[in-house]
From TrEMBL, chain A:
Protein known as: Monosaccharide ABC transporter substrate-binding protein (CUT2 family)
Record carries keyword Lipid biosynthesis: no
A cellular-component GO term for this protein: cell envelope
Compartment annotation: Cell envelope
UniProt keyword annotations, A-Z: Signal
Residue ranges of every copy of the Periplasmic binding protein domain listed in the record: 43-303
From TrEMBL, chain B:
Membrane topology: Multi-pass membrane protein
InterPro entries: ABC_transp_permease
Chain ranges passing through the membrane: 7-27, 39-57, 64-82, 88-110, 117-135, 162-181, 214-233, 297-316
Annotated coiled-coil segments of the chain: none
Annotated family: Belongs to the binding-protein-dependent transport system permease family. AraH/RbsC subfamily.
Gene Ontology CC terms, in alphabetical order: plasma membrane
Cellular location(s): Cell inner membrane
GO terms assigned for molecular function: transmembrane transporter activity
This protein's UniProt keywords: Cell membrane, Membrane, Transmembrane, Transmembrane helix
Organism: Marinomonas alcarazii
Protein name according to UniProt: Monosaccharide ABC transporter membrane protein (CUT2 family)
TrEMBL record, chain C:
InterPro entries: AAA+_ATPase, ABC_carbohydrate_import_ATPase, ABC_transporter-like_ATP-bd, ABC_transporter-like_CS, P-loop_NTPase
Stated name of the protein: Monosaccharide ABC transporter ATP-binding protein (CUT2 family)
GO cellular component, one term: plasma membrane
GO MF term list: ATP binding; ATP hydrolysis activity
Main localization of the protein described in the UniProt heading: membrane
Lineage: Bacteria, Pseudomonadati, Pseudomonadota, Gammaproteobacteria, Oceanospirillales
Localization per record: Cell membrane
Keywords: ATP-binding, Cell membrane, Membrane, Nucleotide-binding, Repeat, Sugar transport, Translocase, Transport
SUPFAM superfamilies: P-loop containing nucleoside triphosphate hydrolases
Protein topology in the membrane: Peripheral membrane protein
UniProtKB/TrEMBL annotation, chain D:
Species lineage: Bacteria, Pseudomonadati, Pseudomonadota, Gammaproteobacteria, Oceanospirillales
Annotated organism of origin: Marinomonas alcarazii
Pfam families attached to this UniProt entry: BPD_transp_2 (PF02653)
Gene Ontology, cellular component aspect: plasma membrane
Transmembrane segments: 52-69, 76-94, 100-122, 129-147, 167-189, 217-237, 249-266, 273-293, 299-316
Main location: membrane
The organism's place on the tree of life at top rank: Bacteria
Family membership noted in the UniProt record: Belongs to the binding-protein-dependent transport system permease family. AraH/RbsC subfamily.
Localization (cell): Cell inner membrane
InterPro entries to which the protein is assigned, alphabetical: ABC_transp_permease
Gene Ontology molecular function terms on file: transmembrane transporter activity
Keywords carried by this UniProt record: Cell membrane, Membrane, Transmembrane, Transmembrane helix
Protein name (database record): Monosaccharide ABC transporter membrane protein (CUT2 family)
Protein topology in the membrane: Multi-pass membrane protein
Length: 328, 322, 517, 352
């Protein structure tokens, strides 16, 4: 199964014509596939955008991996819009790429465009989150599980506090799948502990400024740190903003309020090393390698798992300084 | 003889042809009809929204609520279909009625309370997005066979391209928009209102009624766009179409309609939407721009385009004066 | 709903009206209207017969426009009744009034500048085929309507590419298109030249013979006497009386309007010679601009008034703009008191003593939202620059002085100028320049759209300024007025200067002869 | 009677102020402790202080926006300019040894350059303001990301920390900065003729030209001023989180700023502007945000609540509503009058 050579037979051609076309293809096939081998792969990559530092490092990592392998990577930034991502995927199909990496901004709404890719026999690899479509429509997904991340954070917190804790939560952008799933995962674990409750939950829109502003209002509304035992932030940036808010209100993060968040961006390691954050769960940004491998494997006719899990570990302050040095 | 009023739209057409020609020259894949039919399909919801926006802008107003309306209508439709088991046709009907009603309410506030459209529709923008959140936070697939069936209707073109249902719906709504604008009293009232609202009132144009109708129409077109968007993605998502109002305004302005009102054509808006689509397609075909260069390129092309249009208009005016 | 009832009633009434022709076409009974605290109309009653042309006269603020706006439903009335063809009507807006049979043409052309002539003519009345507007039929209709007012122009071109005069005629053509029974012409002649006025009068005469009732509002008494059958005079919102035109002398008419006898208003005998020694102020040396104004020479000395005469579109305004510098000439030299201004900014021109009251007061003169005070100090402040503001005390002193001197009627100096009457707005604009103490003042149509009282006052002011040694360049379409004060008259025709009349040559006949030659 | 006159004259001023007070009172009744202010570490502490503290960036942006709107323009790019100036501040602090005041000047200069760009497009190329500034709105974030290379650049500087979160005389330093800027702007606008010129140009550009006001330069400087204000706001926002977030800093802030200007009673069609009331408008918006955050309302209700309250405020403030109300009461009065009998002053027409 090689790239450019196979096109879906055109719907308006009669059956006899289709046969003729197939014959032509079968003659051309070895030639074209040989040339495709020589010219390496052309991969389209539809990225959500560059809304966070984590997203940028993911992009950089995938680009670097493609360059290392000598692939021609067609990169498209969708500026957080699903419609732009669909447009990009359709453009990749029109262009005739060998494979498509898609980091879907939302889980639903991909069936049609995935079907089109399938008709064009272009494998699609989902990056860093899944879609709610028939798994046969895509090759595989290389992603971590947001729910698991939320659950991991909750488990750590439960262990740390012996299942007794008033938690304030900083949600991600309202309606985003990372926010919804991390909350679901977190809630599913703490629901087992009757003495763990979320006393306040608001959206900090995944930003530092948002995290800081919301944390300030939490501290005011709860009358300082007395009634708050821990902060769960859906990403590190919000946690970093909230840490600033605590310090300014005279509250000591980690001492007065435990801080757990997700992503493992470099700055949170620095905060942990400085004793201002307790735990972070890594969201692995280096997804290019496994994704490209999957496309190659599929070309060779090998079977590929539908979910290549890329969940990261939970980091604690003990290794923070070393990790920070490594990642900076 | 080139009419002064047609000049901006001709400039737009010229730019569209130039950009398309550049793409064909530069990229092999661009020459396929698939690119053109993709342009029609992918930008359908934007163009539909922008057609409604054209009426608003022609009348001298603005409607910032369209993006949120698209998301709200989609979520409402999904709720009706998936949670109440309603047939999609009824759901679409209800969604359209709701869209028109909300548009009309904004029109009433603008017309009777004389609050500026920019602000009323800004509040509408917050409100509709908020209502979408209230119905459903999560993204919901709408996998009703009727909806997927609509998506699969397809008239093939030579080459790999084909006219999808979405593209055809857009073209029908475009034709409807053109007829409304140029061949009905309502359309003429819109132009009159944008040209000089004071005089329009004295000439017997029912100003308040027309304003309400305009925003109701914009509500209809953005609701229609919400429906099309739901068919396009087969799902509903409360965060869908963020910032589409700005894209729609840009499409209208690129299409040669004056933001001050009174002058412009619905067909120009179609071209404006297609030009924005082409810019995106060119950037994707190039594929080497990183995130920030993409933003710069979109901004730069917007600037280039506006200056070019301005230049063509000035040049022709000078020539015709000489 | 009530509209529908009215209309069906009207159909019935029309039949009845045909049976009894003696019934007046329009009856207004005890009409009153007040705005917050001001009684704009107080118990006004009048009747108009079919085929009657009625002049509606009065000074600004007399209530003419309020009466028209109440008639056409723009303002709701407080009290009183309006009967058209014997049936009570109550228009809800001007569109409704049109459907009822009352069409209005306003002083400022109220059409849509960005639409074509055809679209303007047929707006809201387009004929349709299969529910859609048929532009073919619309064009035919538009040509018919244009022919009716004797215009031969391309109806497909955008309205604002035509002159104001043509736009005014288009507006009249439109008003006639709706099977009007009553036609209200609110100062339609303000921007028409004499030929066009003649054309309009012929049209009015024809409409009259067709049985239309016409209300004609104007400031030109000549026109009142040449076309109207009867006159209604309003003063301070009250109806002073209705008179047969043939039986009312001009002096009586003016007395009724201003509420005092004519002797106070009669122009003093005028003198066209300058009494002082000639110091040159403005010198235009071969100044012109392609497709705008043919090159010409012009000098104005201190204490001299130079009039600019000519038909509409002859280049009067163009001359004023080139002299002032708001349009830059592409050849020639402009100097004022030995300062070359050919290439300098308007600010510089104002600093060396130039001042300009433009023709279009609403567009180019007033800043409607700003107060009388701010409007008045604008030019002086602009010439000083933003960093050296005039202190509030000084502003108040200057403005107070001017309000006194020019007798500007305003409740206080912080009222937005847009709420003042036209005459008072014009005085504020004049005052704006007077406080800059200009050496030379250019006035383009300084008395347009102003009532008789203010008209007279402005002419007095012009004369006073001249006596104080100011040079003035005054463009006007009213020859009578030019002859009254100008020492010299430049006659313009087809964008060039055809003649310059000096001293005793200045007379209405001489100017007309020059224009006609 | 006199009191009535006062109310009548200051209706425009009172409406936004009353709205603000009302919103604060309602929130206080829902959220206990909302009004409490106490001293913590030598500075004031409480929700009301938070409102002031959080309102400063929007207030600065709205100040520039008000001036631009006065010239019949609009500046959609302020959010992007905030991102750019924040990025410049962060990158220069991290990558150079320049003294902090040089860094701040550079950031402010960058903002003014952005304003200059907008101004040139609007006043020299005659592009409609909404389109002209849309270009920088789209491209500006790209520029900011280019400067930060897509990362959130965190920095440390004592001076910048103080600007972001320091206190002086018990009040946040950034509030002092905003007050200083507001006072300065009001002084410049009202004590020189600049305010008059801007309002004149905004209300009637043709008439202004004829009295010798150079509209082009004026409009240009309005955009430069708006750029400067946005840059100040950008520095404060970056200092606040000690990092430059090119993607999110000041996102959609332009809409809040425009809303504030309009809540203050200005027209988007140019002309009269009300600088101090604009600040009241900003406080209304920020109070609303803070109130929603402290009230414990679920996140998904934020927008609906905000939109509803803003609409309510707008409707209450609308001159039309006031007119209807007064008409209603007038009619009542009138009805009473006519019942007591209002003699007609009949005067027949004098027929000759």
């Amino acid at each position: 199964m090689k790239s450019l050579s196979i096109r879906p037979s055109l719907p308006w051609l009669g059956a006899f014509k289709r046969k003729a076309v197939l014959t032509t293809f079968s003659v051309l096939l070895p030639v074209l596939s040989a040339s495709a081998m020589a010219a390496d792969l052309t991969i389209g990559f539809s990225q959500i955008g560059s809304e966070s530092g984590w997203r940028t490092s993911e992009t950089e990592s995938i680009k670097a991996e493609a360059e290392r392998r000598g692939y021609d990577l067609k990169f498209s930034d969708a500026q957080q819009k699903q419609e732009n991502q669909i447009k990009a995927v359709r453009s990749f199909i029109a262009q005739g790429v060998d494979g498509i990496l898609l980091a879907p901004v939302v889980e639903t709404g991909w069936d049609q465009v995935l079907k089109e890719a399938q008709r064009a026999k272009i494998p699609v690899v989902l990056i860093d989150r899944g879609v709610a479509a028939d798994p046969s429509l895509y090759l595989t997904k290389v992603a971590s599980d947001f729910k698991e991340e939320g659950a991991l954070a909750a488990s750590w917190l439960a262990a740390k506090t012996n299942g007794r804790c008033n938690i304030v939560e900083l949600q991600g952008s309202v309606g985003s799948s990372a926010a919804i799933d991390r909350k679901t995962g977190f809630d599913s674990v703490i629901s087992n502990f009757p003495n763990m409750t979320i006393t306040r939950s608001q959206s900090g829109s995944f930003t530092r400024a948002g995290g800081k502003e919301v944390m300030e209002s939490f501290l005011k509304a709860e009358g300082g740190a007395k009634n708050i035992c821990a902060l769960f932030a859906h990403n590190d940036d919000m946690a970093l903003g909230a840490i600033l808010a605590m310090k300014e209100a005279g509250v000591k993060p980690t001492k007065d309020i435990l801080v757990v968040s997700i992503d493992a961006v470099p700055d949170i390691f620095k905060a942990m090393a400085d004793g201002e954050a307790n735990a972070t769960i890594e969201l692995n940004p280096h997804l290019g390698g496994p994704a490209f491998d999957a496309i190659l494997a599929a070309q060779d006719g090998k079977k590929v798992d539908k979910w290549i899990k890329a969940n990261g570990p939970l980091y604690l302050p003990d290794t923070a300084a070393a990790e920070y040095a490594k990642r900076k | 003889m080139i009419n002064e009023r047609n000049l901006p739209i001709l400039a737009t057409l010229l730019v569209f042809i130039l950009l398309y020609g550049f793409g064909m020259y530069e990229y092999k894949g661009f020459r396929d009809t698939l690119v053109f039919s993709n342009l029609l399909t992918d930008n359908a919801f934007l163009i539909i929204t922008a057609i409604g926006m054209t009426f608003v802008i022609l009348s001298g107003g603005i409607d910032l609520s369209v993006g949120s309306m698209i998301a709200f209508i989609g979520v409402l439709m999904a709720y009706l279909i998936t949670s109440t088991g309603m047939h999609p046709l009824f759901a679409i009907g209800i969604a359209l009625v709701v869209g028109v009603a909300f548009g009309a309410i904004m029109g009433v506030i603008i017309a009777f309370f004389e609050i500026q459209a920019f602000i009323v529709t800004l509040a509408g923008m917050f409100l509709f997005r908020g209502l979408a959140y209230l119905i459903n936070l999560d993204a919901v697939p709408i996998d009703h066979p009727f909806i997927t069936g609509l998506y699969d209707i397809y008239v093939p073109l030579p080459g790999r391209g084909g006219l999808t249902f979405i593209a055809m719906a857009m073209l029908v709504l475009l034709a409807l928009g053109i007829l409304l604008a140029r061949r009905t009293r309502f359309g003429m009232s819109v132009y009159a209102l944008g040209g000089d609202s004071h005089s329009a009132a004295l000439l017997g144009v029912p100003v308040k009624k027309t304003i309400i109708k305009i925003y109701a129409l914009s509500g209809f077109y953005s609701a229609m766009s919400g429906v099309i968007f739901a068919i396009y993605t087969g799902s509903a998502y409360p965060l869908a179409a963020v910032g589409v109002e700005l894209d729609a305004i840009a499409a209208v302005v690129i299409g040669g309609t004056l933001l001050t009102g009174g002058v412009g054509y619905v067909f120009g808006t179609f071209l404006g939407g297609m030009i924005q689509g082409i810019i995106q397609t060119l950037i994707t075909f190039d594929g080497s721009l990183n995130s920030w260069w993409t933003k710069l390129a979109v901004g730069g092309l917007l600037l280039f385009f506006i200056l070019l249009q301005k230049g063509i208009v000035v040049w022709v005016k000078k020539r015709s004066a000489a | 709903m009530s509209q529908l009832v009215n209309e069906t009633l009207m159909v019935k009434e029309t039949v009845e009206a045909a049976q009894s022709a003696v019934r007046p076409l329009l009856e207004i009974k005890h009409l009153s209207k007040s705005f917050t605290g001001v009684q704009a109309l107080n118990d006004v009653s009048l009747e108009i017969q079919q085929g009657e042309i009625r002049a509606l006269l009065g000074e600004n603020g007399a209530g003419k426009s309020t009466l028209i706006k109440v008639l056409t439903g723009v303002y709701p009335r407080d009290n009183g009744e309006i009967l058209l063809d014997g049936s009570l009507i109550s228009a809800s807006d001007s569109g409704h009034a049109q459907r009822l049979g009352i069409s209005t043409v306003y002083q400022e052309v109220n059409l849509i500048p960005t639409m074509s002539v055809m679209e303007n003519l047929t707006l809201q009345h387009q004929e349709k085929t299969f529910g859609l507007i048929s532009w073919k039929k619309a064009e035919i209709r538009a040509r018919e309507l244009l022919a009716q007012v004797g215009l031969d122009i391309d109806p497909l071109r955008q309205l604002d590419t035509y002159s104001i005069a043509i736009q005014q005629l288009v507006a009249i053509a439109r008003a006639l298109s709706t099977q009007a029974k009553m036609l209200i012409l609110d100062e339609p002649t303000a921007s028409l030249d004499s030929d066009e006025i003649k054309q309009l009068f012929n049209l009015m005469a024809r409409l009259k013979s067709e049985g239309l009732g016409i209300i004609f509002v104007t400031h030109f008494l000549d026109q009142v006497y040449s076309i109207t059958d009867s006159i209604t005079v309003l003063r301070n919102g009250e109806c002073i009386g209705t008179f047969k035109t043939a039986e009312l002398s001009r002096s009586d008419l003016v007395s009724h309007m201003v509420g005092k006898s004519l002797e106070d208003l009669a122009p003093t005998a005028h003198d066209h010679s300058i009494k002082r020694e000639r110091t040159e102020l403005l010198q235009l040396n071969n100044v012109g601009k392609q497709r705008y104004l043919q090159p010409l020479d012009l000098n104005i000395a201190a204490g001299e008034i130079v009039g600019v005469a000519g038909l509409l579109g002859s280049g009067r305004t163009e001359l004023c703009e080139l002299a002032y510098g708001s349009v830059k000439p592409d050849q020639g030299e402009v100097t004022l008191s030995n300062h070359s201004l050919t290439k300098s900014s308007l600010r510089r021109a104002i600093q060396v003593g130039m001042g300009y009251c433009p023709e279009d007061r609403k567009q180019d003169g007033i800043v409607a939202e700003l107060s009388v005070r701010e409007n008045m100090i604008l030019a002086l402040q602009a010439s000083k620059g933003w960093w050296s503001p005039i202190s509030m005390a000084e502003q108040q002193k200057l403005v107070e002085e001017m309000i006194q001197r020019l007798a500007i009627k305003t409740p206080d100096m912080d009222k937005p100028i847009g709420e003042l009457s036209g005459g008072n707005q014009q005085k504020v604009i004049l005052a704006r320049w007077l406080i800059t103490h200009p050496a030379l003042l250019i006035l383009d149509e300084p008395t347009r759209g102003i009532d008789i009282g203010a008209h007279h006052e402005i002419i007095q002011i012009i004369k006073e300024l001249c006596e104080q040694g100011m040079g003035l360049l005054v463009a006007s379409s009213e020859l009578e007025e030019l002859v009254m004060f100008a020492h010299r008259v430049v006659v313009m025709k087809d964008h060039h200067k055809v003649s310059e009349l000096h001293g005793d040559e200045v007379s209405e006949q001489a100017i007309l002869r020059t224009i006609a030659s | 009677m006199k009191k009535n006159n006062f109310l009548h004259k200051h209706q425009k001023t009172l409406a936004p102020l009353l709205s603000l007070v009302l919103i604060i009172l309602i929130t206080a009744s829902v959220t206990p402790g909302f009004l409490s202010i106490r001293m913590v570490d030598g500075h004031l502490f409480g929700s009301l202080l938070d409102i002031l503290h959080r309102a400063t960036p929007t207030a600065l942006v709205a100040l520039g926006m008000a001036v631009v709107i006065g010239t019949r323009g609009i500046d959609l790019s302020v959010g992007a300019v905030i991102a750019i100036s924040g990025a410049v501040t962060a990158v220069l602090t991290v990558n150079t040894d320049w003294p902090v005041w040089v860094v701040i000047l550079c950031a402010l200069g960058t903002g003014m350059l952005c304003g200059l760009w907008n101004g040139i497009l609007v006043s020299v190329f005659n592009i409609q303001p909404i389109v002209a500034t849309l270009i920088l709105m789209v491209a500006g974030r790209g520029i900011a990301q280019m400067i930060t290379e897509g990362q959130i650049v965190t920095f440390h500087s004592d001076v910048l920390d103080a600007i972001g979160n320091g206190y002086f005389l018990a009040f946040p330093i950034r509030v002092w900065i905003a007050i200083g800027m507001i006072v300065l702007t009001v002084l410049v606008m009202r004590k020189t003729a600049l305010g008059l010129f801007i309002e004149a140009v905004g209300a009637n550009v043709r008439a202004s030209r004829l009295v010798g006001i150079e509209a082009r330069l004026l409009v240009l400087s309005a955009y430069v001023f708006s750029g400067l204000c946005a840059a100040m706001s950008g520095i404060i926002l970056a200092a606040d989180i000690r990092g430059a977030d090119a993607n999110n800093a000041g996102l959609w802030l332009e809409l809040d700023a425009i809303l504030a200007v309009v809540l203050a009673g200005a027209s988007l069609a140019g002309g009269r502007i009300y600088l101090l009331l604009t600040i009241v408008g900003v406080l209304i918006i920020q109070t609303l945000t803070t109130a929603i955050l402290t009230s414990g309302l679920p996140a998904q209700y934020n927008l609906v609540v905000k939109a509803t309250i803003i609409l309510a405020v707008l409707l209450v403030q609308s001159p039309k509503t006031r007119q209807w109300l007064s008409d209603f009461f007038m009619k009542k009065k009138h009805a009473e009058n006519s019942r007591t009998g209002n003699p007609d002053t009949g005067k027949g027409s004098i027929e000759p």
